[in-house]
Write a sequence for this structure.
């Protein structure tokens, strides 16, 4: 295994541990989130800490971000064991890549939606329980900011998601 791969793996582990620490401290600190590996770690912790609902607005559920064993297991446990509701709204409904995450959505019968309103939004974001969020200001770039405890921002994103759901169309009934 090359040094760069080992260094990156250690870096991602340290990042994930930092996120766990922020959840434990109920911190309102902002988190830089600039790589797909960072997004995976953050989404994983969102699902591990979710109590009621996770809402995701994303361009296309890219496998590079969502095809991850830890993320899939955390999401599956949240949905099945903790009865967390997952709402997914995609902006580009024709290009959902096959992934372990998509398979998990099928297994848990979680639908994927789109809407004309969502297609016009330039951001990607995820919001958990009116409290935690991750937002990419430009959906073409994985540069994001997040927080585990900023209800003021999370509530704004929650309300935006609600508006984007109006006129939604189910594009995938993920039944097995």
């Amino acid at each position: 295994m090359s040094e760069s791969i080992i260094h990156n793996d250690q870096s991602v582990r340290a990042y994930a541990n930092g996120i766990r620490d922020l959840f434990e401290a109920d911190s309102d600190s902002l988190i830089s989130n600039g790589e797909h590996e960072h997004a995976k770690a953050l989404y994983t912790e969102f699902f591990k800490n979710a109590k009621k609902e996770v809402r995701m607005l994303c361009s296309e559920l890219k496998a590079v971000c969502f095809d991850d064993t830890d993320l899939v297991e955390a999401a599956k446990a949240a949905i099945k064991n903790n009865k967390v509701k997952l709402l997914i709204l995609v902006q580009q409904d024709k290009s959902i890549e096959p992934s372990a995450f998509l398979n998990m959505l099928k297994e848990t019968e979680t639908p994927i939606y789109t809407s004309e309103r969502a297609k016009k939004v330039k951001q990607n974001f995820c919001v958990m329980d009116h409290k935690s969020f991750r937002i990419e200001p430009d959906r073409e770039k994985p540069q994001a900011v997040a927080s585990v405890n900023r209800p003021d921002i999370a509530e704004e994103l929650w309300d935006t998601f609600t508006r984007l759901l109006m006129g939604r169309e189910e594009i995938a009934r993920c039944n097995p």
Notes: Residues 1-7 have pLDDT under 50 and may be disordered. The beta strands are 31-33, 53-58, 85-90, 112-114, 124-128, 132-136, 144-147, 169-172.
